[in-house]
């Protein structure tokens, strides 16, 4: 009987190890098959499981280059920037500089003057979970003005005018995706720390985690991918400006896996803050939201994820704290359908 139990234990151990080793191969097979069907869309994928890293990538940096995309190739992570910003907000909470349920009134720069109807109404968590009710930037109009660099026209003057002229929060407490909410969170961070958002994210995230290929203002590097709009036309990377906390960080699969490692390690500053962001701050029949995170649950899993779309690239990040894995997908074309379908296939057929 003892021999049988020992044999069973060894068999289970071998089976678990084989399954763990098989996951990267299956992910690679799925990504490779997708690339064969869509050879014009380059992709870089990073995966972490129990602190072990795996990467795969397909495609070239651009149509004229023979240099292959790899884990170090630079992409626009677009709105995935929002979870970096919300993590910084949560770090400020851990440091007792703010609370998630603090009203924003006392944390905005002096140029912002809230209308009487808005005072002591909007919480920091409302901004981070897209339920502030504040009007947003008219992105469609900005695209008409400058299809390559639409956010270039967003200035501090425009931002303060939008906020100061708002007299009513018509859908406060209801979900409405907001760029201006995260732009304001950047302003709040700057007020709290007395530094620029660029300095804050460098000091509290990029440098401590050694994310040397996560770039802000200067991203003119040789390993930068080329962005393509849905029709295949070349699209410029967005330049840095006041909306940066909502979506202007550039990074790669390697650095985003480093970030996921820190998130899954509750002993790190980023990991401690991540626990705060994972709390449910908004819930309706269609969604649950943390601070910057979408939360998906079933009987066996809780997934935390965030997607991003610039004018020319798409990305998505997802992790499972209990099962200790995380994944980042970066596409060199704006193709939200493809990146969502790829994540769904990986989660449903490989990681469950």
Automatic annotation (TrEMBL):
This protein is called what?
Beta-lactamase-related domain-containing protein
- UniProt keyword Signal present: yes
Any idea which UniProt keywords this protein has?
Answer: Signal
Question: Taking every annotated instance into account, which residue ranges of this chain make up the domain Beta-lactamase-related?
Answer: 28-337
Q: Which InterPro entries match?
A: AmpC-like (IPR050491), Beta-lactam-related (IPR001466), Beta-lactam/transpept-like (IPR012338)
Instruction: Indicate the secretion signal residues.
Output: 1-20
**Gene3D superfamilies in the record, alphabetically?**
DD-peptidase/beta-lactamase superfamily (3.40.710.10)
SUPFAM superfamilies from the UniProt entry: beta-lactamase/transpeptidase-like (SSF56601)
Top-rank taxon of the source lineage equals: Bacteria
